[in-house]
Structures are given as C-alpha cells and as structure tokens.
Write a structure and sequence with these properties.
The complex is a heterodimer of chains A (362) and B (561). Chain A is α+β, with helices and mostly antiparallel strands. In chain A, 23% of the residues lie in helices and 38% in strands. Classes of the chains: A alpha+beta (362), B mainly alpha (561).
Chain lengths: 362, 561
C-alpha cells in the first residue's frame, strides 16, 4: 500500500528554541517496497516514522495510507494509531514482560474480534514464519535479544497489516547477530510483498536491506534513490559522504566530454562522470571512494587519471590494507588488496576509474 | 479524566498540605503563648526550652545515641555485605532474610524483648548469669546509653545493609584486581581500595541511621526512660504527656531543632546518593567477582552471621512468646515451665482497650495503606510521566516528609487538629500517617512507573488497542508489583506506628503500639508480649495476603484461554 505525505511539519521547543524535526516534507513511499529513512541521529527520521504510525501528531501537513487520509491538521483529521491497521517493530522491541510469547504475538488479534481458533492458527503461522515454533509458552523475559526481535516481528505481522514499520530494530543486537538478522529480515520481507518503512542510521543496513533509500538531514529529505544510485552517483555531497567513505577533492570543471567532464583539481586534471551536467568553469567537488583508487601498473606513470603519490600510512586490517596516499597537499584514503607488495614511504602510481568517480556541485 | 495540569495542581495542593501543614503549625506553635490562644507572638517557649539546665545533657545523649547507632549499624552492614558479595560463605539466603524480616518485627517489641533479656532487676539473661556464676548483682544493664546504642544499631542494621549491599555488589571488581596485581594483600586492598571507593555509600548509610535514630522513639522510651536517659524525642514526649501540665509550645520549640537537624542531614544524604554514581562504577561486562575462599575462617564467620540473624529475628519472638506464657518475668527453669499458661492471652483478648487498639490499628493499616497507595499512584504518575516544573515541585514536596521525625510532626499536627473537629478522631491519625509515610509508598510505585518504557504502551496502541485496553492489559499489570510493595510497606508501618501515635492518639483512638507502650510503662510484660505476638501475626498475615492478591492481579493482563 502506498503512503503519500504532503507538507508534513513537526516542531519541537527546547529551552525556548524552536527545532524543526520535520520541515515541510513531501514524500511518496511506493507500495510493496522496502523503503529506508537513513540519516544521522536527530535528523527527524524517527519523528517521521512516528507521524506515519500515529504516535506523534504533526503540526501541519497530510498523510495518506493507501487512499485513506489518516492525518491532516488542516482538515482536522486524526486517525488514532490503533485504528490505522499498521505493524511496527520498536527499537527496544517492546515485548511485554508479563506475558509469554503466545500472548505477546496474539495481542493484536485479541484487540479485534477474532475467534480463539483463528488466533491460535495465526499465531502459530506467524511464529513459524519467524522460526520460533514451539516457543509459545516461553515467558517473554526468558528470550535472548535475537529471539525478542523475532517475537516483535511476529507480533507486527500477525494481523496481516498493510504496512510494517521498523524503528532501528537491529541497533540493540551485537555485531554478529545484527548481520545475521539483517539477512533474515531481507528474506522475510521479500517473501511477504509488503510495504515496509525502515528507519536506521546504519548505512550498511540501509544499503543491504532497501529497495529505496531516503537520506534525511535536519528535518528534510535530501535525496531518494535505490542503493546503487545513492552509493555510486549521489547528487549531494552530504549524501555521498554519509553513505560511505569518500575522498572529496575540490576543483573546477574545465571541459565537457559527453557523460564525462575534465575536472582540474589541486592534484591535476581528472576525467570523471558528470551526471549532474555541471557547466564548464563552475566550481565542483570530485568524489572517489577508497576502493576505486587503484594501484597503476609500474610502467604507466602518465596518462589520464594517473597520479604519482607517496604511501603515507599503511595498515593491515585482514581483508585489505587501509592506506593514506599523499599527493601534494591532498591526502587520499584507499583500500589496497592485502597481497600488494608495498610499504610505507613507497612512491606509487594510482589510477582513478573515470566511470567510478563523479562530480558534485560544490 | 483530569486534564494533566489540573491533576498536577490538585496533587501539589494535597501533598503540600500533608507535608507543609505540620511544619508551619509547628513553627507558629513554637512562637505561641499557649495551646488554645494562637498567634500571640512570644519567644518565651524557646528561651524556656533551651535554657533548661538539663538540655545540654539531653543534647549530648542524643549525639552519642544517634552517632553510636550509626557506627554500629554501618559496621555490621559493611561486614554482612562484604561477606555476602565477596566470600564463599554457605547458606547465603540468610542475608536476604536479615535484610527483610526484621522490618516485620515492630521496633517497640524488639526494644521490649531486649529489656526483658537484659534489665538489671530481673532480666532473663542477667538472672541466668547470676544463677550460673553465683553473682550478687546483674552483669548487664540495658537501661544505659550503650544499651540504647546496641538495640537501635541492631534495629537500623537492615536499612544500612540495604544501602551498602547494592553498592558493594555494583562495585567494579577490576579496581580490586588491579590492586592485587600491584602486590597488595586482600586486607590491604580492602582498606586502600574497596572501602574508600564505597565511601559515599557508607556515609549515606551512616547519615540515614542518624536521621532514623534521631526520630526513634521506641528505644529511647522503652530502654532510655527507665534509666532516666533522655534524648530529644523522649524529652519532647515528656513535655506533652505529663497530664494537664502538657506544654505543646515548648515541645514545638524543641522539635524545631530536631526537625532542622533532620532536614539538613537528609539534604546531605540525597547529595551523597546522587554523587555516589561518580564513585561506584558499574561495569557492564558481566564479570562475577572471584569469591575469597574463607577456608578455616568459614566457621567463625558463619557463627557470627548466624548469631546476628538469630538475635535480629528469632530471639525477640522467642522472648516475647516465652514471657507471654508466664505470670511474671523469670529465667527458664522447670518451675517456669510448670507455671506456663494462656492467662495473659485470655486477659488481653478480654481487655476492651487492647481490643479497641487492635481494631483501630487494623483499620489504619488497611484503609490507610490503600488510600496512601492510591495517592502514591497519582503522585508517581505525575513525577515520572509528566516532566514539568510543577511535577518537580511535587517530587520535592513528596520526599520532604521522609526527613520528618514522627514525634515532631505529631506535635505539629496536634497544633492543627486541635483547631478542627478532627481532634481525637481516627481520621486525624489516618491523615498524619499518610502525610508522614507517603515517601514509602511513592518510592516503589514510581520505580515501577520508570520501568514501563513508553514503547510498551505505544506498541500496544499500534497493535490496535485503545488507550483504556492498554491501561488494563499493559500498564496496570506491570504496575502491580510496585503497588503491592508500596501497600505492604505502608500497611506494616501503619500497623506498628508509634512515634506519631503517642502524640495524636487520645482515649478512644488507642493503637497497638501505644497500648504496648502503656503496658511497658506499667510493667505488664506478660500482657504486652501476648499483644505483641498478635501484632506480629497480623502484620505478617497482611504481607502474605497482599502478596497473594498481587500475584493474582498480575495475571489479569493475560487473557484466560
């Protein structure tokens, strides 16, 4: 089910100052996609999610879930959270400690007129979907973090909601479990064909799980796109920097070459993608990710996008070397394959792949 | 439902009245000429009270009594907490019992049982020693300052333990381990690292015991007064209990200094407990401290711990029961056992005043605790869930009475009630009790509220539950444990209440503890003991009943299948 948001605004007042948690947001979340709201803490992503679910009352704007208007301050419409028919997984999971697993999962069905038989059948189905068969009578306090997370998911799914919302559901798990649960969640959600709105500040989680990512900052949505678009060709410096490690180099566009442009920078001229069509003579920023700075074969010391530099630091981290290369005043971070035969202080040649470095308007 | 600001304001008015009324009346009373004509400003009561030649002695006794009890209780609590958390002593469940059960034995009965054991004329232990070693005079005299310190210190041991034990177990053991790695012995580590780091908790415990012994009336009246050793609380009592010459103005003037000392100490206590976070480091890594192996020392340590729990729990009950069966006090012998009968029990149960006090105390315990719990629920809700300036005021107000000595507050209320039709009624006692013991209800209930994370309620709403359904199935079942412990605390406190009651209780509104005090003053030890055992039995039954009902109600949140 599609969610449409128009002009959504929410202000907070703290110590006499007004903080715009949501600043006039327009957004359409397409049906049956995993849609992620990504951003640093305090960017308003959780507030937006809580407005959709009805736990927060916006100061202005409208929200439609499907064709139903659930919230509009102008038209004085506010549908209470219990009447919106959504499912939600909270950051703390919010598993009720005084109930066992069955009662936790059955709760959404018990609030509506569902027969005992039906409840038992649906709870069983939901629990087996999250691979917790046989846990019905386990007290909620006797569950591990991962199990609690699954109970929360089963509870959110049991009433077959139109939309399911996630508020940083993996942030309370340890690193290894987080990775496993992320994979599981991905397969659960793609199996279900359901609209999912997912809030996170973890870029890897966002890239791995989402069909679409919306990056937020200071109450505004900066950019929406699929994970590859956001990672490889984001339109904004903030997004490029937030979604992954990035080397940003200042300079000017000096010549257009079809999709590409020649960019003159402090380290020399670089051919790069110019997806935004920045005009010749304009100031711009070049973004190149560490994994796309490659060691050039030794004999190649000249040519397009080849530069000489000095290996300033080199740290072995197992799957790769993490290094810093100095070219004049500029320091570039890079990852180098772990078998490379180089050391700190070596002079090396590096090459930028013109298709994997891109220009951003400064 | 109330609108939220109105609820907060209403509560501020109610709690403000309950806590500030006695203080203001006490202040006004201390400057008034006499009890009936109010408001004629005079300093004469202060001059009279503080130029009394006995006053210096009373002050000195008070200082020795309170500080002595604080040192004794804190040292014992430190020892118990250390043995419990750091050594491999067997039967550790004893520590839980030591920390909880003595609260069920009323202070006045505990004091009486020691008087029965160690009084110089016919104390059971004294007589035993005299017979055993053929001595001419008694070995111990409980009616002395050291005797008072001993009994009060033991009485306040559970409170001191409840403060020190959590700090001891939250202590980051790596601090100790690094000391040992540096070459220090266990003992050196204890004195150079463990105790200094625990300093805030130790100080907090000592200060709280000083405050409680300053307010204590049971020990000074049962043990101090027969030996003519007066402290502030008994000095106040002496001034208002002497029949028609009662001087409530002088009592108020003396009370002002006890109240000021108490409030200052509680202020320091709260400062220390909020500071203590800086010292006691809680490590999130779940390292269990390596237990010190006691080896051969195990047996003496176990004997000490066992003796302490015997002295704290079993001994008072045994002594009381033994005495209740005898016509007069005597050491155990074949003659004593031959003379045993239920005579005292029969007489007590036929005594109209004892029965009335039983009825009154039961009413105050059940009704008072219920009203107190209801008020505590609203106050806790506002303090925890509505965070505003007004709720901050309410919080400070509601914890103020924690520092009030009962007898002083009783005098303050007396100045108030004498001007209302409530004077001499059971309602006066009810209001006084709730005002004085409100913090005991608020504390467990507000911590229950803190534990209900807002996500637990919100998640219920998203699951399709209305606010009312959420209240019934999520909020109330989660609050019940806190409500039950609040109710139990208040009910047991009310059932045994002495310090406030000795002032407010009038003919017709006798309560158990006051009746027991009268028996003690008249030397009717047998009847006293019988009534005391009945009192312990009732308060234990209330605790059990409340626990059972509480666990039934917790299951309310689960839908019957």
């Amino acid at each position: 089910m599609e969610i449409r948001i128009h002009g959504l605004t929410r202000n907070y007042y703290s110590e006499g100052k007004q903080i715009k948690a949501l600043d006039n947001i327009d957004l359409t979340i397409p049906a049956n996609k995993i849609f992620t709201l990504l951003g640093p803490s305090g960017c308003g992503k959780t507030t937006l999610l809580r407005c959709i679910v009805g736990l927060e009352v916006p100061d202005g704007g409208e929200i439609y879930i499907g064709d139903e208007l659930v919230c509009s301050s102008e038209k004085k419409v506010f549908v209470a959270p219990e009447s919106r028919g959504l499912g939600m997984v909270f950051q703390t999971y919010a598993i009720w400690p005084h109930m066992n697993v069955f009662d936790n999962v059955a709760y959404p069905l018990q609030t509506s007129k569902t027969t005992q038989d039906e409840i038992r059948k649906k709870v069983g189905k939901a629990l087996s979907f999250v691979q917790l068969d046989g846990f019905e009578n386990r007290p909620a306090t006797k569950l591990s973090g991962g199990q609690q997370q699954r109970v929360a998911l089963a509870r959110a799914l049991v009433a077959e909601p139109k939309v399911i919302l996630f508020d940083e559901p993996l942030s309370n798990l340890d690193a290894k479990l987080r990775e496993e649960t992320r994979k599981e969640l991905r397969s659960f959600l793609s199996e279900l064909q359901i609209t999912a709105v997912y809030v996170t500040h973890d870029r890897i989680e966002a890239l791995a799980l989402s069909d679409l990512i919306a990056v937020m900052r200071a109450g505004k949505i900066i950019e929406i796109g699929d994970p590859k678009k956001i990672y490889f060709h984001s339109d904004h410096k903030f997004v490029a920097d937030f979604i992954g490690r990035a080397n940003l180099i200042k300079g000017k566009v000096s010549e257009q070459q079809g999709d590409h442009a020649v960019f003159s920078s402090e380290i020399g001229s670089i051919v790069a993608l110019n997806g935004q069509g920045i005009a010749t003579g304009q100031d711009a920023m070049l973004c190149v990710r560490p994994e796309f700075i490659q060691l050039a074969p030794e004999q190649v010391t000249h040519g397009h996008n080849v530069f000489k530099g000095k290996m300033e630091t080199l740290i072995f981290i197992g799957e790769a070397y993490e290094g810093e290369i100095r070219i004049g005043e500029t320091l570039l971070t890079t990852t180098i394959e772990p078998t490379a035969n180089i050391g700190e202080g070596d002079t090396i040649s590096i090459a930028f792949d013109p298709d994997h470095c891109f220009l951003l308007s400064a | 439902m109330f609108k939220k600001p109105t609820l907060t304001t209403t509560l501020i008015i109610i709690v403000g009245f309950l806590t500030l009324c006695p203080v203001i009346m006490l202040l006004l009373g201390s400057f008034s000429k006499d009890f009936v004509s109010f408001g004629q400003f005079t300093l004469s009561k202060y001059i009279e009270a503080y130029t009394d030649p006995d006053f210096a002695d009373i002050l000195w006794n008070t200082v020795v009594f309170t500080c002595g009890s604080a040192i004794l209780a804190t040292l014992l609590a430190l020892f118990l907490a250390y043995v419990n958390t750091r050594t491999d002593l067997p039967f550790k469940f004893i520590f839980k019992i030591i920390s909880i059960i003595p609260m069920m034995i009323p202070h006045i009965l505990f004091s009486v049982s020691w008087a029965l054991l160690l009084n110089p004329s016919n104390g059971i232990l004294n007589k035993l020693f005299m017979n055993l070693f053929e001595l001419k005079s008694a070995v111990f005299n409980i009616y002395s300052l050291p005797g008072m310190v001993l009994v009060e210190g033991l009485l306040d041991l559970p409170i001191a333990y409840l403060i020190i034990a959590p700090a001891m177990s939250a202590f980051d053991v790596s601090l100790e381990e690094s000391s040992k790695v540096c070459g220090a012995s266990n003992l050196r580590t204890l004195f150079k690292v463990t105790l200094p780091v625990l300093r805030p908790a130790i100080l907090a415990s000592a200060i709280l015991v000083v405050v409680r012994s300053l307010a204590s009336f049971a020990v000074p009246s049962v043990i101090g007064m027969p030996g003519r050793i007066y402290v502030l609380s008994t000095h106040i009592y002496r001034n208002i209990s002497s029949g028609f010459a009662a001087d409530f103005g002088k009592a108020a003037a003396i009370g002002m200094s006890a109240l000021a000392a108490s409030i200052t100490l509680i202020y320091i206590y709260r400062y220390l407990t909020s500071e203590s976070g800086k010292f006691v480091t809680i490590s999130s890594r779940g390292f269990k401290p390596t237990l010190i192996k006691l080896k051969k020392a195990k047996y003496p340590v176990f004997v000490i711990v066992g003796l302490l729990s015997f002295v704290l729990i079993l001994l008072p009950v045994l002594v009381l029961f033994y005495t209740s069966m005898l016509p007069y006090s005597m050491p155990p012998s074949s003659r004593a056992f031959a003379m045993m009968s239920w005579q005292n029990w029969v007489e007590v149960l036929a005594d109209p005043i004892s029965l009335l006090s039983l009825k009154n105390s039961l009413f105050l315990g059940v009704v008072g605790a219920t009203l107190g719990t209801i008020l505590s629920i609203f106050v806790s809700y506002v303090i925890v869930k509505i965070r505003s300036t007004a709720s901050g005021i309410l919080e400070s107000l509601s914890f103020l009475s924690f520092s009030f000595p009962g007898i002083v507050i009783g005098v303050g209320f007396m100045w108030f009630f004498v001007r209302t039709p409530l004077y001499g009624t059971i309602t006066a006692l009810l209001i006084g009790y709730i005002a004085t013991y409100l913090p005991y209800g608020i504390r467990p209930i507000s911590s229950a509220f803190v534990q209900i994370h807002s996500h637990l309620e919100e998640s219920s709403r998203v699951c399709g539950a209305s606010p009312f359904y959420t209240l019934r199935r999520i909020v109330i079942p989660l609050l019940i444990p806190g409500m039950v412990s609040g109710w139990i605390l208040m009910a047991t406190m009310f059932l045994r209440e002495l310090t406030l009651s000795v002032v407010l209780s009038r003919p017709g509104t006798e309560v158990l503890a006051v009746q027991i005090l009268h028996f003690a003053e008249d030397g009717l030890w047998g009847k006293l003991s019988a009534l005391g055992i009945i009192m312990i039995f009732i308060s234990s039954s209330l605790v059990i009943a409340a626990t059972v009902i509480g666990s039934k109600m917790t299951k309310m949140g689960v839908v019957e299948k």
